[in-house]
Amino acid sequence: MRRNRRPVRGVVLALFAVFAGAARPARAADGGCTATFAASDKTRQSPAHVEVIRSAGKGEKPKRSEAIYAGGKIYVTINGQWKVSPISMADMQKQQEENRRNSKYGCRLLREESVDGEPASVFHVHSENEDVKSDGDVWVSRSRGLILREEIDMNTGDPSATHMSMHYDYRNVQPPRL
Q: What is the CA radius of gyration of the chain?
């Protein structure tokens, strides 16, 4: 019997769109893109637990999901069950490199503030390519250079825009029991 992998792909692709699209280096004036790009790379290389709240369209109830990045794999929750994503961290890195070549983006430092007591630099990131425009804020740890939080609005041209709120935790991260 063939299992339906569509729900896994949907959650992972949503995470992927944000992770690959939100933090990119600038082609012209930097304004903070180098810092957000470096944080994105470092986050992909670090074990992390990510809580995601995704909302799309008016009246749609926000959807909560989780992901764990560990050992080069991405684990996601689907209907309360952990699954291994068909997309690896290496796949995500390759997509990131393609996005750098095919997108326009800009970044600027907004302010300094804390996330869970950790000092962070908050950058506004705008990116666009032929399929997606996104605007969001990325909180980067000043001491560790890791992404701590993201608030991203994506528009794919359909009537409902998507908002994603992500919180990253790097403490005691282990792959889930499957």
A: 16
> How many residues would you count in the chain?
178
Mean pLDDT taken over the chain: 82
CB 37 within 8 A of CB 24: yes
pTM above 0.90, yes or no: no
Cβ 51 vs Cβ 166: under 8 Å: yes
For residue 28, is pLDDT > 80? no
Give CA–CA dist 108/138, Å, rounded.
10
Domains in the chain, CATH or no CATH each: 6-169 (2.50.20)
Q: Going along the chain, which residue ranges are E strands?
A: 48-56, 63-70, 73-78, 81-84, 104-115, 118-128, 133-141, 147-155, 162-169
Across the beta sheet with 81-84, what order do the strands follow? 81-84, 73-78, 63-70, 48-56, 162-169, 147-155, 133-141, 118-128, 104-115
- pLDDT digits 0-9 by tens, 62-121: 999 999 999 999 999 988 899 999 998 889 888 887 877 778 888 999 999 999 999 999
140 vs 107: CA distance, rounded Å: 13
